Every structure is written in C-alpha cells, then in structure tokens.
Amino acid sequence: MNELDHSLLKRASRGNRESQKALCEHYAPMVWNVVFRTVNGDAHAAADVTQEVFYRVLRSLKKFKHEAGFSTWIYRIAFNASMSYLGKRARRRRRETTIDENGSGMGRDAGAGSRAEVREILARLSPEERFLLVAREVEDLSFEQLAGITGKSAGALRTSLHRLKERIRKEERYE
After folding, report:
1. Mean pLDDT of 82-99
2. What share of the chain is helix, strand, coil (3-state, %, to 5)?
3. Which residue among 7, 35, 71, 85 is the one 20 to 30 A from 25 at the CA level?
C-alpha cells in the first residue's frame, strides 16, 4: 500500500478537514477489505467497524509516532476494532441464545462457485485466522507488518499461516 505524504498526515493531525478526508479516502478500500473479511462478509458490520476505525484513527492521529508505516498503524486499529466488534457480537449472541434456546446457527451461503466456497472456508476460521489469511494473501502485508499489527513475531505468524493453509487443504480434501 502506498503511504500518504508525511505533510498530509501532519495537516490531518492538526485538524485540516481536506487532509483528513484524503486520508480516509486513501485508506478506506484497504480497511474495508480487511474488516469485511474479518467479520466474515457481514457488510453491515463491516460498515460499522470501518466507521469506527476511521473515528479512532482521526481521534488518535496526533499519537502516531511514525515508528512503523502508517498503513501498519491503521491495520492495527482495524484489527483491534474488528476483534472488539466480534467479541461484543459473540457476547450478545450468547445472551440471546440463553434467552431463546431456539436460536438458529449460521447457515451456509447460498450460491455456487468459488466465491461461495471462499466464504464457507472463511466462515470456518476464527476471526484472527481470517485476519491473518486476508491480510497476508489478499492485502499482501509482510510478516513484519503483521507482527507490528498483532504483537506476535513474524516467525510465529509464518508458522501459523502455514498450519492454517495445511488445515484448510485437509478439510477441503475430506468434504
């Protein structure tokens, strides 16, 4: 991902609305893609989380220390916001299931073709696994960037991704 000019970030951190808008427009596709896949294709949830991400980014822009790439910093915020959303959603579902024992489980996506298959595979993964797979394979983040986002070592992430891919291959063979 191309990083924005340092001067634009500085103007945005000082409250310049045009610079803030440019920042949001530049990073919105990346954030949307990661969030959308992390929340397992729920467009409504992705919209809410993406909005929360940019709220947090703009609120915390002055705290950005320029030690890592700006996109890495935004990925970290997107990751945390997605995990927070999913945690709240899981707690809400547990409460609803307790209240209504007839709660329905997640169904398979209707439709055919590789998109439906990808959605089904992603649905079986944990949010952290979805994030890792999408960030690395779709968004092409380096393991070093992912380490900065997740707080795990690059080596541990390589191992996790390798094991995840192997597990997916095995599951697909037996279906």
Report:
1. 74
2. 75, 0, 25
3. 85
Query: Who contacts 95 (Cβ-Cβ below 8 Å, separation ≥6)?
Result: none
Residue in this structure with the two tokens 């024992």, named with its chain if needed: 101
Look at residues 97, 104, 73, 89 and name the one whose alpha carbon lies nearest to residue 38.
89
pLDDT in tens, 100-136: 443 333 333 333 457 778 888 888 899 889 889 888 8
Q: What is the DSSP letter of 139?
A: S
User: Phi, psi at residue 151, to the nearest 5°?
Assistant: 85, 5
Which of these, 124, 94, 126, 92, lies nearest to 109 by C-alpha position?
124
Domains and CATH numbers, the chain: 6-173 (1.10.1740.10)
